[in-house]
Amino acid sequence: MNAVFDRLAIIGIGLIGSSIARAAREHGLAKHIAIADASETHRKQAQDLKLGDSVHNDAAEAVKDADLVLLCVPLGANAAVAAHIGAALKKGAIVSDVGSCKQAVIRDVAPHLPEGVHLVPGHPVAGTEHSGPQAGFAALFQNRWCILTPEAGTDAAAVEKVKAFWAAIGSKVEIMEPRHHDLVLAITSHVPHLIAYNIVGTADDLETVTESEVIKYSAGGFRDFTRIAASDPTMWRDVFLNNREAVLEMLGRFTEDLIALQRAIRWGEGDALFDLFTRTRAIRRAIIDAGQETAAPDFGRGAGAKGDAQS
Questions:
Q1: Per-residue pLDDT at 41 exceeds 90
Q2: Whose C-alpha in 21, 77, 221, 240 is 20 to 30 A from the C-alpha of 42?
Q3: Average pLDDT for residues 246-251, to the nearest whole number?
């Protein structure tokens, strides 16, 4: 495929950033890949892994003459990064990101972009519980959704270029209104992560009571929760702080449903339990049929498998 961009700048070279770099290189989507990261260790790893054509300490240097700038930093860092690189962006440049809260990205990034620079927020719904440049792999986005949330009036050509970029590295691309995205991801990703963190934390608190049997006898369900709860703490702290309204709304609904489930167990309402479990089993099968998971007994998380825990 012909290069979509002359110069691609990736700010933040963790799991997602390094996977994008690998995929862009593999598919020839940029003539020059510039990488910037505040971590000296990450920059050294990026150089050793040959993830980019140039590696920078200063993000403003990396974005100079860039056609596409991808912010792959924690949500809490977006405002500072955008303020730092704003003056270095060329007219016509496109700025996008990979965060899972889109209203916050628009709030924090848009004010720092000069006239003539286009903001096309994006969210690849993909990831693993691993982090760092070495954790990335080019196939991470294959058959995964990438949701773009441009505001009304965003340059249509810029949106199409970003859409083409993600499609070229294997993603299925959807355009969505920012607030709707945040509500959808609150229930499909954010609240499940919060529940996982809470359950694993409770188990840790009970370790002394159970004499280490929680860890020793971890069954599949708890093991999957620990995989999700192993995701990057900085990223998830920022997700909950920046999508608090949607998360609290969905958490309230979940709490109501949990109380109803508690009541059914207390009063021995077997039919209600059976109906719920039947309905949720069908959802699991629909996810497999949609190609977003595998039907393998270990849900595809055997040796070397990549879980979808960072999304």
A1: yes
A2: 240
A3: 93
In this structure, are residues 11 and 79 in contact, taking their beta carbons and an 8 Å threshold? Answer: no
Give 228's contacts (C-beta < 8 A, 6+ positions apart).
Answer: 129, 192, 193, 196, 197, 307, 309
What strand order describes the sheet that includes 122-124? 122-124, 145-148, 172-175
DSSP string, the chain: ---SEEEEEEE--SHHHHHHHHHHHHTT-EEEEEEE-S-HHHHHHHHHTT--SEEESSHHHHHTT-SEEEE-S-GGGHHHHHHHHGGGPPTT-EEEE--S-HHHHHHHHGGGSPTTPEE--EEE----S--SGGG--GGGGTT-EEEE-PPTT--HHHHHHHHHHHHHTT-EEEE--HHHHHHHHIIIIIHHHHHHHHHHHHHHHTHHHHTTHHHHT--HHHHHHHHHHTS-HHHHHHHHHHSHHHHHHHHHHHHHHHHHHHHHHHTT-HHHHHHHHHHHHHHHHHHHHTTSS--STTTT-STT-------
Give the span between the Cα atoms of 182 and 244, in whole angstroms.
Answer: 10
Tell me the two tokens of residue 29.
Answer: 């989507």
Phi, psi of 13 (to 5 degrees): -120, 50
